[in-house]
Known about the structure:
Layout: H1 11-18, H2 24-30, H3 34-39, H4 47-68, H5 74-84, H6 87-95, H7 110-114, H8 121-139, H9 141-161, H10 168-178, E1 185-191, E2 198-205, E3 208-215, H11 218-268
Antiparallel strand pairs: 1-2, 2-3
Helix pairs in contact: 4-5, 4-8, 4-9, 5-9, 6-8, 8-9, 10-11
Amino acid sequence: MTKEKHRRPPIEHLEEALGVSLDPELLERALTHRSYAYENGGLPTNERLEFLGDSVLGVVITTALFHNHPDLPEGQLAKLRASVVNMRALADVARGLGPDGLGPYLLLGKGEEATGGRDKASILADTLEAILGAIYLQYGLDTAAKVIHRLFDPLMAESAGRGAALDWKTSLQELTASLGLGVPEYRIDETGPDHAKTFTAWVVVAGDRYGGADGRSKKEAEQRAAEVAWRTLSERAAKSAEQAEKQPAEKQPAEKQQAQKQPAERSSAPAGKGPEKVRTSAASPAKGA
Length: 289
C-alpha cells in the first residue's frame, strides 16, 4: 500500500461495507484521485474505472426501476432514476459506507487535501463509481448488481415513496425555489381542430424560456415542458456546485501569481485605460420534444 501522511482506517472496514473483498492493486487504483496521481509521477488514476462504474450503476438502477414500476411511463422512470443517480445522492451513499465513510480512504494530492477534498461531493461520487467499476471488473455484473442494490435500494424506496417526485411541475417549482429563481410561469399554444388539438407548452423561469413541448392535453404539455426545464436547471446547478468545489484548489496558485504581477501591471498599463472585460454568454436552454 502506498505510504502517505494521512492515516487510513483499516481497509477491511470499507470492504465489509461493500460486502466484497477487492484485489489490493485494483482497489488502490479506484481510490486514486488524479491530483494524487499527478503529484506522484503520473500514477494510474481512477477515472477509467469511474467511467465504467457509472455505466454499470446506470444499467442496474434502470433495470430495477423498470421492473419495480411496470406501470410508469418512460418520463417518470427517468425522473426516479435522476433522483437516485446524481452527484449528491452518490456522495451521501459514499459518506455512509462503514463506520468511517469513504473519505478517509481516498488518495488525494496536497491541494485537494488542504481544501477539504475528502468530503467534496464530486470526489466522493466519482470514487464510489470507480469502486463499482472495480467490483464489476473483478466479479462481473451479478456481484456488482448485488453491491449496488445493497447500497442504493433504500434510496430507491425513498424516491418511489415521494409522490411529488413523479410530478415534474411540482419538482420544478421546488427546484426553482431552492435556487432562488422564483415561481415558474407556463405559456400554452393550441393548434388543430377541436376534436384533435395539439398543445405546446413553454415554461418561463427567471426570464428564460424552456420547453416547446407538445402534448394531447394542457397538463401533459406543461409536464413535458417542466421536465425540460428541470433537467436543464438541475444539470446547471450540479455543474456549478462541482466547479465551486474545484475552484479553491485551482484558484490559489493563480491568485498568488496575480498578486506578484500586480505592481508591474499597474505601472505598465496605459493611462486612462482599464482592464479589458470578457463577455460570457449562457448556453441556450435545451428544447424538449
